[in-house]
Amino acid sequence: MSSSPADDPPLAESYRDVQESPEFAELRSRFRRFVFPMTALFLAWYFAFVLLGAYAHDFMSHKLFGNITTGLVLGLLQFVSTFAITLIYVRWANRTFDPAAEALARRIEGDR
Predict the structure, then answer these.
(1) Widest Cα–Cα separation across the chain
(2) Is the pLDDT score of 109 beyond 90?
(3) pLDDT digits (tens, 9 = 90+) for 9-66
(4) What is the enclosing helix (H) or strand (E) of 63?
(5) Taking phi first (over 0 means left), then psi (-120 to 50 degrees means alpha), and beta for anything else, what does residue 66 get?
(6) DSSP 94
(7) What are the boundaries of each domain within the chain?
(8) Among positive and negative, which fits the CA dihedral 15, 22, 92, 78?
């Protein structure tokens, strides 16, 4: 026998229960411990590049070989670091975060 919509708890109450659960707090904490440092690292790297471009013209225009300058190499490394951060995040999420989130979702949906 299936339950009727009247038997289900209000949606807002269900969300509040999940948000207040220790499992959700741990999940949120794991996410923040990974994302905040990674974001800070990337922003520091990005702003360092911008500041070097604005104030260190001689350094950024230094020719490494041919017409390849320090600024060009550092600019290309911005793209490399963006892809690397994305790959690191996806790998971390697949191994750590997603399994914990799925377990929490199964537990919460099983309670209904």
Answers:
(1) 76
(2) no
(3) 555 567 787 788 888 899 999 999 999 999 999 999 999 999 999 999 999 999 999 9
(4) strand 63-65
(5) left
(6) I
(7) 10-111
(8) positive
